[in-house]
Amino acid sequence: MYEKKIPENLDCGVSVAIKVLGGKWKACIIESIHRGVQRPSELHREITTAVPRVINMQLNELEALGVLGKKVYPGLPLKVEYFLTPLGLSIMPVIEAMDRWGNENRDYVVKMSDAMLSEQEDF
User: What start and end residues bound the annotated signal peptide (predicted)?
Assistant: First the structure.
């Protein structure tokens, strides 16, 4: 089993939030499930820039943290649906604020990101 060299410090509220939302796709996964996307295959179709393996790993992490619940239906093929737990629902205002901030600052961040890339290419 992997053991981190530097222990986690979860004394800071921001660190706790980053533990939950820190994966590249976790906020998108939570937001999609909040909008009604429940099955992993639906998430794979919706978040096309993410590799399905990564989405599945982050679904498992969010479930282990108690942010998501999972319902498994019997039968073949196996059917799995995810839902937000009360903890998951409680993080929605944070995700909505992130979405609002990102929409308000998209043009500036894209411009600065493009400038950074062009500077790197000059070296």
Answer: none
Q: State pLDDT tens for residues 29-40.
A: 999 999 999 999
First to last CA, the chain: 40
User: How many angstroms separate the CA atoms of 34 and 88, rounded?
Assistant: 9
Which residue bears the tokens 């479930």?
63
Tell me if 59 sits within 8 A of 40, measured CB to CB. Answer: yes
Q: Check: CATH 1.10.10.10 for 13-121? A: yes
Residue 98 three-state SS: helix
Q: How far is CA 61 from CA 57, 68, 109, 113, in A?
A: 6, 9, 29, 29
